[in-house]
Amino acid sequence: MDFQTPDWVCKYMVSLLSDKVVTVLEPTPGEGNLVCALKEKNYQVTAPTDFWEVTGRWDAVVMNPPFTPMALGYKILFSCMEMSDEIIALMPWLTIINSEKRAKDIQAFGLVSITHLPRSVFAGARVQTCILQLQRGYNQPTIFRLLSKQLFWMSDREQTYSGF
Fold first, then answer.
1. Residue 125 and residue 153 in contact, taking contact as beta carbons nearer than 8 Å
2. CATH number, domain with residue 86
3. pTM (2 d.p.)
4. What pLDDT tens digit does each residue of the chain (164 aa) get?
5. Domain residues for 120?
6. What is the domain count for the chain?
7. Does 164 reside within a domain?
8. Is 103 contained in some domain?
9. Helices (H), 16-99
10. Helices 7-15 and 33-40, interaxial angle, to 10°?
């Protein structure tokens, strides 16, 4: 099965970026849905064909890495934490709940928010997903959000995303 990020999820992820962001790395672009959403907002996007050949720093990373094997997605996430201070990552919930060390490392980096995605986002997927919003040095309580396509489109019309 092919699990590309739906357009409405891409737009939500892009909405989480701070105002200071100009350059963005999308380390595993797939068909490019995230890249398109980023370019629509005029970000300078790097979308390599081989992430492991990439070096440098970016203002932000926005990503939906592969979940098979899950260890690869985790490895990409932690590599990106060395390349940017701001990360928006669509990840399996297992990223947070299945490893105390991984959860502590993510919290120590700075976990701003976790957005729960409905299972229907990726039809046929067995993995429950969420969006992690990370900011290096953030040490306030983590915000938990529930997101559905209906809530997103309602907020999109109002041009605000604070109601999640």
1. no
2. 3.40.50.150
3. 0.88
4. 566 788 989 999 999 999 999 999 999 988 899 999 999 999 999 999 999 999 999 999 999 988 788 889 899 999 999 999 999 999 988 888 888 999 999 999 999 999 999 887 777 777 788 999 999 999 999 999 888 766 554 444 333 334 33
5. 7-158
6. 1
7. no
8. yes
9. 33-40, 70-80, 94-97
10. 50
